[in-house]
Amino acid sequence: MKLAFSTLGVPGLPVPEVLSLATTHGYHGVELRAHPEEPVHPGLSPAERAEAAALFRGAGVEVLGLAGYARVAAPGEDAPVLAEIRDLLRLAHDLGAPFVRVFPGADPDRPREESDAIAARRLGTAAEDASVLGVRILLETHDSHRTGADAIRILGPVGHRQVGALWDVMHTWLGGEQPSDAYAALAPHLGYVQVKDIASAEDTVPLPLGTGVLPLTECVDVLSRRGWDGWLCWEYEKRWYESAAPLQGLLNGGREYLLRALGEAA
After folding, report:
1. Biggest CA pair distance of the chain
2. Largest CB tally within 10 Å, which of 37, 92, 130, 214?
3. pLDDT for 79
């Protein structure tokens, strides 16, 4: 498996410095948080996109994906959501990124079947653009659809190769789903896996990998035993928790923890 980290852990850090962290600490790729407060976002000009892509190529680091914020099950008109996804897809194409992350974001007060149908319809439509651009849209296990069982209620009806799943191991755990069950549900659709660690369900301040309660070794073991050889991406949520330790000082330990878990699973 290849290792990456998300720029959610280094808010606002310029691309050259992000790449320096990746190369110094032995990460193969980076997941870019695609938000206007970050250096890379859909508002970049063609020249700025080309410059960012060139920096990644020059460093030998892959852009794993763009972490977008489109909410595909949210109430409202389809057009704004589809436009947001298309902007992300174009940026991913220009950067050479294979994946774009979207959230479910359903209204808890609306019938579940209605929200699932809205999300499936939007993703099915966006899949056509994704096919043309050679990018895959990944629905993250998050918020209203935090387990694999939740996610496949949307992904199953879509049934398109350019629409898949992003397994966030914290959210499936918070949803009470075992790693083996999450993998079984998501495996046919799985794009990559986000790892992280926390102290408890009530205290989600990010911790160094392996120092909290999340079943990371079990997740890695499940993936390894099933022969899955994709990406593990460390999503350290520093942007949302200012009190968290800087990611820069944790990257070596995180890589070593994941490599050790992979070795033990093998």
Report:
1. 49
2. 92
3. 98
Please state the length of the chain: 266
Kind plus residue range of the DSSP H or E element containing 231: strand 231-234
Mean pLDDT, consecutive 10-residue segments, the chain of 266 residues?
98 98 98 98 98 98 98 98 98 98 98 98 98 98 98 97 98 98 98 98 97 98 95 98 97 98 92
Token pair listed for 210 = 């392996």
Beta bridge partners of 5: 30, 234
Between CA 101 and CA 122 the distance in angstroms is 14
Nearest alpha carbon to residue 194 among 250, 114, 139, 122 = 139
Asked if 66 contacts 90 with a C-beta cutoff of 8 angstroms, the reply is no
Query: Which pair of tokens denotes residue 121?
Result: 């319809």
Question: Mapped to the 3 state alphabet, what secondary structure does 130-182 carry?
Answer: HHHHCCEEEEECECCECCHHHHHHHHHHHCCCCEEEEEEHHHHHHCCCCHHHH
Closest among 79, 91, 76, 82 to 35, alpha carbons compared: 91
Q: Are 143 and 109 in contact (CB under 8 A)?
A: no
Give the pLDDT confidence of 199-214 residue by residue, as tens digits. Answer: 999 999 999 999 999 9
Measured in whole angstroms, the distance separating CA 15 from the mean position of its chain's CA atoms is 18
Which helix (H) or strand (E) segment holds residue 29: the answer is strand 29-33
pLDDT at residue 266, as a whole number: 82
> Using CA atoms, how far apart are residues 40 and 34, in angstroms rounded to an integer?
6
- Residue 213, classed as helix, strand or coil, is coil
3-state secondary structure of 74: coil
Quote the CA–CA distance of 124 and 244 in Å, as a whole number: 38
